[in-house]
Amino acid sequence: MPYSLLPSLLLQILIVGYTPGPANIYSLAMSLRYGRRTALIMWLGLLVGFSVSVSVVSILTHYLGMAFGEYVVYLKYLGAAYILFLAYRIWNSSGMQEGRTGDCTFVSGMMVQLTNAKMMLFDLTAFSTFVLPYSNRLVDLFEVAAWLLIAGPGANLVWLLLGSFLRKFFIQYKRQVDIISVVALVLCALYIAF
Question: What one-character-per-residue DSSP string does 11-43 give?
Fold first, then answer.
């Protein structure tokens, strides 16, 4: 990637990565519900899931070019279904809790990212815009993939910390926070699927 394009890539990361999406909303909801310490375990899952996902997309982009891109869109249905499952779990839970962490685990965080079609499509867009016109070298794809960590797990961490900061305020509005989180996740799932 020519370094003259770095500001454009960072702007795209800011716009796409930090706006509400499935992983960001999930990070916020889990931080509000379980607190920062427990949510950070889930965030490690988000980090690993994103790292695996962006690495696989980088390798596939390198070896197959953009030919496989048309099949990535089918992952959106799996991602939308998983997001609806998360919304269902939040809806049926009993509010903010300290001890129990049923839906705030390393595995749940990893699954959110591995099924996050928004981020996979964003990765493909970044590779096709900032790398493929200039190079098809795997090292160049991985360089942009490293920058994309700012968009995925970086943004998720910001949303998680925001939830941790606002947690005390939202404790008195437990059910309303759950309802807003569920509605936001359902809207994300619908947006992804349609």
Answer: HHIIIIISS--HHHHHHHHHHHHH-HHHHHHHH
Token match 């919304």: residue? Answer: 87
- Whole-prediction pTM: 0.76
Q: Residue 132 in 3-state DSSP?
A: coil
How far is Cα 66 from Cα 137, in angstroms, rounded to an integer? 14
Instruction: Give the Cα separation of 175 and 193 in Å (integer).
Output: 27
pLDDT band, very low/low/confident/very high, at 79 (cuts 50, 70, 90): low
Q: If residue 59 lies in a helix (H) or strand (E), which one and from where to where?
A: helix 36-64
Contact between residue 144 and residue 6 where contact means Cβ atoms under 8 Å apart: no
Asked if 159 and 39 touch (Cβ cutoff 8 Å), the reply is no
Mean pLDDT throughout 98-115? 79
Give the distance between the most distant pair of CA atoms in the chain.
Answer: 53
